[in-house]
Model the fold of this input.
Amino acid sequence: MSKHIVPLEYETGLAELRGDCARMAPHWVVPAKAAASPVAASLIHGVTVPPASARLIDAMSDYGD
Done:
């Protein structure tokens, strides 16, 4: 016996979805952003980057140039 899964059809439009989000927004908690403080390079140790990852980043002009 095989069961057929019938996809649900949603009749929700964009306006209704936006309204639902607007009603839920007050319930979402946004954590306070903590300011990142710089770390001295001498304190960073034991970090290894696989060669393939290093090549990938080096090949990206945003990072490698």
Observations:
- Helices lie at 14-24, 51-59, 61-64.
